[in-house]
Task: structure prediction
Amino acid sequence: MNETELLFTQVLNCQRASLYLDKDKQLSDSQISFIASVLKRRIKGEPIQYILGRTEFMGLEFKVDKDVLIPRPETEILLETAIGTVRKFASSQVRKLKALDIGTGSGCIAVALAKEFPGLKIDATDVSLEALKMAQGNAKLNGVKINFIQSDLFTFLGPKNFDGSTSLTILILL
Result:
């Protein structure tokens, strides 16, 4: 969706297709006021995702704010590559895999992986407690379970968790 579609689907609480099918819909004064305030913030350079407090990644909805980076389209390409790699293993092997998402931010990578592979064990770390809270909320929003750890890189993970001796580890570091 482009920015205009994002804005109007939120204001009208509708799906994208409704914007084009229900062309005669009238906006209320409060909706017009909200749109005007959003446009003022956009003119100042604030990203539409932060203004609306949400974004889409890999077809899933994520909440975002200034405490996390906005997921980029290029990250979707990276994740599609990781998903293709995991798919090369038989479905029975997925339960033996582990994934580590360092610097999880909004949790978009970990959540999308967990959604795609429910049996995958995923640890996601971030040094920021605010980012971890956002990621935990996004995991709950998308109905997945992830082990979130406040950590600066590998500090609190322990040496045996990802040594590769008992399972294949997928490491995602952005």
Q: What stands out?
A: Confidence is low (pLDDT under 50) at residues 165-169. The CA atoms of residues 63 and 72 lie 14 Å apart.
